Amino acid sequence: xxxxxxxxxxxxxxxxxxxxxxxxxxxxxxxxxxxxxxxxxxxxxxxxxxxxxxxxxxxxxxxxxxxxxxxxxxxxxxxxxxxxxxxxxxxxxxxxxxxxxxxxxxxxxxxxxxxxxxxxxxxxxxxxxxxxxxxxxxxxxxxxxxxxxxxxxxxxxxxxxxxxxxxxxxxxxxxxxxxxxxxxxxxxxxxxxxxxxxxxxxxxxxxxxxxxxxxxxxxxxxxxxxxxxxxxxxxxxxxxxxxxxxxxxxxxxxxxx
Length: 257
What we know:
This protein has helices at 26-36, 52-58, 89-105, 114-122, 148-151, 165-170, 230-256; strands at 5-9, 11-15, 19-23, 39-43, 61-64, 109-112, 126-128, 156-160, 174-177, 184-187, 192-197, 203-208, 217-218. Helices cover 32% and strands 23% of the residues.
């Protein structure tokens, strides 16, 4: 059987200041191919070019990647301000219904950074526009200077709920992670379970209660050196196993029909 296909949600960008492109970091592709063991397929997120139904039919699972643009606050009932930063409304139109469809179908997804925030919003939650402005919170943003290694270095602990999903998957109650985000969860969606926190109380790991498939999402960036970092490797491996199981089930359903 061929390797299952994982759709990697891309971002709208501009190359050389005037050439529109859809992009995703090579590290996302490496993690999906070499750690999850799946075929990586970068998705151009534009509802004028493809539909959620087409994505569900084409891919066996999805990685909801990070990205500089944020989910538009109108998606969780708030008014846009300068603090909310920039947006990608086309991505919003694809990813939010995609998350809800995957939860319903049991189709696996792995949310990362913006993807983590998309999952919360898709399931009825809201976001803070800037974590570092909250009393008692740390600055979780990417360091402005330094090499990639310095920007993605492990900077704080994440503590998981005792015997929770992440605790069981990672076989650890606490891990060290990088941190490169400005926004974060304000109110968790009704089915969103916050399963891990940073030392300042910021939610860092979630899953969807009673979902039939893999719905783990993290606020940090496990795609960075995913094959070397034991936490990242375990998460992408678990995601790959879930995608293979879903693909096998789908293939069996098609052959039995």
